[in-house]
Amino acid sequence: MYRYDEFDAEFVRQRVAEFSEQVGRRLDGSLTEDEFKPLRLKNGLYLQLHAYMLRVAVPYGTLNGRQLRQLALIAERFDKGYAHFTTRQNLQFNWPKLKDVPEILGLLADVEMHCIQTSGNCIRNVTSDQFAGVAADEVEDPRITAELIRQWSSLHPEFSWLPRKFKVAVTGAEHDRAAIKVHDLGIRILRHPQTGEAGYEIVVGGGLGRTPMIGKVIREFLPKDELLAYLEAVMRVYNAEGRRDNKYKARVKILVHEIGTDEFRARVEAEYAELDGPTVNAPREELERIGAYFAPPAYEVLPERSERLEAARRTDAGLDLFVRQNGFPHRQPGYIVLTVSLKPIAGVPGDMSDAQMRTFADIAERYSFDELRVSHAQNLVLPHVRQDDVPEVYAALEKAGLATANAGLVTDIIACPGLDYCALATARSIPIAQEISKTFAAPERQQAIGPLQIKISGCINACGHHHVGHIGILGLEKSGKENYQITLGGDATENAALGERLGPGIDADQVPGAIEAIVDAYFNERHEGEEFIATVKRTGLEPFKRRFQAYVAGEAGVGEAA
Amino acid sequence: MSVLIDADGRRDDRFAPVETVEALSLADGPVLVPLTVIDAALADGRNAEIGLLVENHIGIQAIRPYLDRVALVAVAFPSFSDGRGLSIAMRLRRAGFTGTLRARGPVIADQFRDVLACGFDEVELPDELAARQPLEQWQEARDVVTLHYQQSYGHDTSILQRRLAAKARG
Fold first, then answer.
1. Is the CB of residue B169 less than 8 Å away from at least one CB of chain A?
2. How far is A281 from chain B (nearest CA, A)?
3. Please, which residues 190-249 of chain A have a Cβ atom closer than 8 Å to chain B?
4. Is the Cβ pair B144, A11 closer than 8 Å?
5. CA-CA-CA-CA torsion sign (A449, A435, A178, A183)
6. What is the pLDDT of residues A294-344, one digit of tens each?
7. Do both A174 and A101 map to the same domain?
8. Residue B2 has pLDDT above 80, yes or no
9. Looking at A166-233, which runs of residues are DSSP E strands?
10. pLDDT at site A554
């Protein structure tokens, strides 16, 4: 993984010093609250419902054991003994005190971490595929590009006061696990159909929030050397022309929508034609320098399948289920990728205690070349485990309460913090996730349903990505009471789609039953071996709508799914 | 009134703002005029420098014809959080403007480094803000971060170029 050189390290120290000065100047009145607010947001510091929240960047979701241990220390010393992983591969502390923040930033800098641009109207932390570098369907490790963008976008002189936030995601694989079509700017690494040269497809104007949109391709093939100049052209057009009269219409998706994809593309290309590319683009040596950090670790030469693991699976049903559900094929023979769910039954999605973080750091160091990943589904990943070691890894995870075998299943729920923490929320998210999780707790029941993504947002801003959940749940407030809208058919992959509403909003206590009704409809409609989202796409909404609305109307005979 | 600062400190503002054609004849030194007055000011045969003041939603095409005829372009910053002026500065420098570029409005000290890097020479601040954030804060805020990754902003060497140089030295 990437390691800071002397310049990266000094840069982060300088930013800590700058933020410390800014806090001081707020306290002595040199900065007004209005002036200080965007400065603290650009350093990841929010004022939430009950306290400050500090969001730490986990660039493209890659961490090592030492970093996770430092995060555990911060959780223990400055928070309530836990931290929360977010849908953008970041990590949040929900209870830091303002006076402690400079010290926390110093501790982060000690392990090559920071909070730069995890909030504010700037280019945010760049996200990527949690299986980068290990998935078989990959053209190239997207983290090389993501790291280049992280550096280029950090404290950018021109693009730090944009109309609104700007989120970038990069994937290098055929199957999109980074949701690039619902980002302000998505990058897909692909090979040129004629020359075979690697380059970029550029997608702009996707996003969720109150006006969800799927991004549009504005460049089908961009040579790799030209990336930063092209991004500068996109950002300059957006900075100059994005709407600033209404913050709800200020994202780039609205500009693209209002002027049209062709016009947006034309303006970017006109700006790009005037740019002096070579003065902007990174020299090839820089990409090579970054790329060297992402070279594969020193794998052992092993047989494709581990007999040791096969034998252990035959005698341990729990291990067998865990490998089947949370395992992902590694491109290196004899290795496996393991998703480690942060969604225990009735738990808080994405939460991890300091003790769990320390245990997990040990496991990653010992069994995964000291590397771990954060996924946008708020889970962790051990990217390089020897299949031979899986029984020991499973035992260690189980002891730490981290062996829930539900990756991608109905209880692997994405949820924003909601009204339990967030000042913007209109309804609770976490308790809804917990109730659904309890309802579908039985492993056999989850297995019978198969892959099904539920995503919950506690307000229209859609941090829980409900628009792209197979089942989406949006919590609103209606006449002083929480009310939940259910959508169906969303998809965040290369087949990106926005979910559609099944009917009127329902009360919190009806949500688990409504999910059961939807699952019932799936059981009625599905063909042999057909996954939930495939059935929805084939049948359309109608059968689900009928069942859902019958449930809401209180008819008998529903709510008895598998 | 306002306060003018540049990379070296406080400066006197020799440009007098003039908002209408009628008021032009009342000013005899250098004037700062909006687009609605610039043609009259240039046609006036004045024996003093002329500055052009532009709003930050104005496209470069509207400004381009004047670039080799004015000594100064001032770009209005209606609010510190509106970054459009930074892109205008980049485009003006790219269009070949070599005169003085001024950011005019309630920019904050924390933006001084970026304003200079995007091609501005000076900042004209409202008195209230200048009193609250004295000159030393501007200099400190500018100097607290000396490293930058971007290659095409400002005059000093980017981190990427420093890396190349370090590698060449071995």
1. no
2. 8
3. 232, 236, 239-240, 244
4. no
5. positive
6. 999 999 999 999 999 999 999 999 999 999 999 999 999 999 999 999 999
7. no
8. yes
9. 168-171, 185-191, 198-204, 216-223
10. 85
CB atoms inside a 10 Å sphere around CB B14: 15
Note down the domain range covering B49: 2-145
pLDDT at A555: 56
Q: A490 and A428: one domain?
A: yes
Q: Which token pair is A395? A: 């035992």
CA distance A143 to chain B (A): 18
B71 within a domain of the structure (yes/no): yes
In percent, how much of chain B has pLDDT > 90? 90
Judge whether B154 lies within some domain. no
Which CATH number fits the domain that encloses residue A38?
3.90.480.20
pLDDT in tens, A56-86: 999 999 999 999 999 999 999 999 999 999 9
Do A259 and A339 belong to one domain?
Answer: no
Does B162 touch chain A if contact means CB atoms closer than 8 Å?
Answer: yes
Span A248-271, pLDDT tens digits: 999 999 999 999 999 999 999 999
Number of domains composing chain A: 4
Count: domains in chain B: 1
pLDDT at residue A558 above 50?
A: no
Q: Answer yes or no: do B147 and A10 touch at CB < 8 A.
A: yes
Mark yes or no for CB contact A162/B147 under 8 Å.
no
Name residues 141-170 of chain A within 8 A of B (Cβ). 151-152, 154-162
- Asked if residue A279 belongs to a domain, the reply is yes
SS (H, E, C) A307-326: HHHHHHHHHCHHHHHHHHHH
**Residue A198: domain span:** 134-292
Between A and B, how many CB-CB pairs are < 8 A?
112
* Tokens describing residue A547: 């069942």
CB contact under 8 A, A21 and B140: yes
What ipTM was estimated for this complex? 0.97
Q: Which CATH number fits the domain that encloses residue B100?
A: 3.20.20.70
Q: Which residues on B lie below 8 Å from A126 (Cβ)?
A: none
Q: Are residues A393 and A485 in the same domain?
A: no
- CB-based contacts of B128: which residues, under 8 Å, 6+ apart? none
Q: Indicate whether A392 and A434 sit together in one domain.
A: no
Q: Is A547 left (phi over 0), alpha (psi -120 to 50) or beta?
A: alpha
